[in-house]
Amino acid sequence: MMLYNNMRSLDLHGIDRDYAKILVKDFIRDCKIMKEEYILIIHGIGKGIVKKAVYEELKKNPLVKEYKQDNFNPGCTIVRIRIN
Q1: How many of the other CB atoms lie within 10 Å of CB of 71?
Q2: Residue 75 backbone dihedrals phi, psi, to 5 degrees
Q3: Per DSSP, what are the bridge partners of residue 76?
Q4: pTM to 2 decimals?
Q5: Which of the chain's ends, N or C, has fewer CB atoms near its CB within 10 Å?
Q6: What is the pLDDT of residues 20-39, one digit of tens each?
């Protein structure tokens, strides 16, 4: 079980898809430097536009080991970063 209060998180509410991609890329890079293996990206539900942009960025980012939508909150995605 993941505890959100122990994970770094990025909240993208109110952010457009293009800026969201930039923020996600920078956030992952920074978390790798800080050796944070698990992070939380809060993209919200809405029409799924920001979530789709986030998933496009996660899919192509070589620092991302795996990611999945939170089972209990579909507005969040848990990301595992390659820290080695």
Answers
A1: 8
A2: -90, 5
A3: 42
A4: 0.91
A5: N
A6: 999 999 999 999 999 999 99
Distance between CA atoms of residues 40 and 21, nearest Å: 15
Residues 42-58 as b/e (b if ≥16 CB within 10 A, e otherwise) read bbbeeeeebbebbbebb
Across-strand partners of 9? Answer: 40
Q: Could you please report the per-residue DSSP string of 14-72?
A: T--HHHHHHHHHHHHHHHHHTT--EEEEE---TTSHHHHHHHHHHHH-TTEEEEEE-SS
pLDDT confidence bin for 84, thresholds 50/70/90: confident
